[in-house]
Amino acid sequence: MLSLEKPFADVRRHRFEGRRKGLMGHTGRRGCYCSSCRLESNGNLEIMRSHKPKMANGNDFSYLDSADHLGKPSSRLREPYLVTDFERAGLDTSYSLERSLAWSIVPDTLAAMSVAPPSTKKRPDGKKDTTFVLEATGAFLPTAAMASATRDLNTKIYSVQGRHKKLWKHVAIDPPMGVQGEFLKASLHCSGNRVPSTAMVRCNQTASAWDVATSRGKPLDIDLGQNCAIFNFSTQGRHPMTRLYPRRYLGDDKIWRVEDRDLLRNVVVSSSGDETYYGPRYTVLCTEADNEIMSHDRRQWTQQMYVTRYELQWREDGGRSWNSLGVFNGNTDPTTEVAHSFSMYKNLKARYLRVIPIDCEGGGAMRVGIYGTPIERPLDKSHAGSGSTEVNEKNQLVTYVLTSAPEWHKCSPFRVHGRTSYANDYDREKPKRKRLLRRLQAKEDMMEAIGM
Question: Pfam families this protein is in (predicted)?
């Protein structure tokens, strides 16, 4: 039987291209080491999660390792680390998921465990972010020794006098006794200066306070967002500037030294002469002598700043005039939270509060706290007397963001849609062109100088 097909039509033709040998006739491009190209090499997927584990510096708590079993290093976990069913299923976001086809099952697993429908957002660079929300089903807790050491660093402030350390103040992490209601979120404003959004009580950061001295006599306005039943109002001064003791600094001889090394134990000297401290650390007050290790800010806040007397006014949502609640005693030190109760005012409902400082110490600074409950939500007896800002772990949600890159994605500034044979490495060619332009410009300048 005579065949009508072309000879060797059933044999696949091999395309030869001299520019791209070894690609079997297909086009290709030169790879680079940017994050976009690394993302493509990892299966076009990467994943990030909220509530990442907060670990402490190893040298700061190395003195706890000696008490561990068989001398093994103890855990450096500072705060509880929330986990979901995603981690319990054997998956994790802290290391590569390329093994055992994990990348292929991650999207389906997250979608099945999510408590809300996934949301997708396309980014300007062509990547796509898919957000999944999972409920926390467990937590890894820090060890008792680590929790105690971390709590001491956050709550105990010492003053150093020679070789002696004296406890200056114990900072409370809970609201005062007798405070009712929950801690209300609020936005702070002042027409005279900028107010940090973190200028709230028990936010122990030096910059997290309203500065009265630079407000040009303007009051502090507080917006609760809606009408709320207000039970208590509290204030604090500016948290004093602190540092860790002992500190490690670079000496004039380019060798790392430890502060007060002659008075301390557990100081180890390496073969190069560098000194490292492996003992317990303390939170101490900064003094004028510490300016060399502090930031070069014109205001170091080494003085104590707080408001001793102030007037408090309130206004409802839609109201036009301010109503005065009276003059209240403020703080006598920068760290103690002083709260006032409004139990004598039945059904005090307000959205806006205004604080007018009267007497100040050190220029004046203030952190505020409002306790109550929103009007739209009925009063719950479980909130009475709590005054806590903590959230139950069962109601905490963990967010996962899955980023995917399409096959045509190419790193900026040279983006190519599709497959190409002549995609050059733009970043490597750019310096060569700059050098060539500089040489040409220098040659033209020389020719003009000799008059040619």
Answer: F5_F8_type_C
pLDDT digits (tens, 9 = 90+) for 125-169: 778 899 999 999 888 888 888 888 889 999 999 998 777 788 999
Structure confidence at residue 69 (pLDDT): 47
What digits encode the pLDDT tens for the residues 278-316? 888 899 998 777 754 444 555 555 788 999 999 999 999
Distance CA 368, CA 233 (A): 7
Residue 105 near residue 90 (C-beta atoms within 8 A):
no
CA dist 421 → 191, 272, 416, 427 (Å): 60, 53, 11, 18
Q: What's the CA gap between 115 and 126, in Å, rounded?
A: 27
* Domains of the chain as residue ranges with CATH: 34-173+394-440 (no CATH), 175-240+301-387 (2.60.120.260)
Would you say 334 and 239 are in contact if contact means Cβ atoms under 8 Å apart?
Answer: yes
SS (H, E, C) the chain: CCCCCCCCCCCCCCCCCCCCCCCCCCCCCCCCCCHHHHHHHCCCEEEEECCCCCECCCHHHHHHHHHCHHHCCCCCECCCEEECHHHHCCCCCCCCCCHHHHHHHHHHHHHHHCCCCCEEEECCCCCEEEEEEEECCEEECCCHHHHHHHHHHHHEEEEEECCEEEEEEECCCCCCCCCCCEECCCEEECCCCCCCCCCECCCCCCCCCEECCCCCCCCEEEEEEEEEEEEEEEEECCCCCEEEECCEEECCCCCEEECCCCCCCCEEECCCCCEEECCCCEEEECCHHHHHHCCCCCCCCCCCCEEEEEEEEEECCCCCCCEEEEEEECCCCCCCCEEEECCCCCCCEEEEEEEEEEEEECCCEEEEEEEEEECCCCCCHHHCCCCCCCCCHHHCEEEEEEEECCCCCCCCCCCCCCCCCCCCCHHHHHHHHHHHHHHHHHHHHHHHHCCC
Please state, in angstroms and rounded to a whole number, the distance separating the CA atoms of residues 425 and 139.
46
Rounded average pLDDT over 396-423: 60
pTM of the model: 0.67
Positive/negative CA dihedral, 259, 262, 266, 269: positive
Residue 197: φ, ψ to 5°: -70, -15
Burial track 238-261 (b if 16+ CB lie within 10 A, e otherwise): bbbbbbebbeeeeeeeeeebbbee
Q: What are phi and psi of 346, to 5 degrees?
A: -75, 135
Of residues 47 and 17, more confidently modeled: 47
Query: For the residues 381-397, what does the mean pLDDT come to?
Result: 48
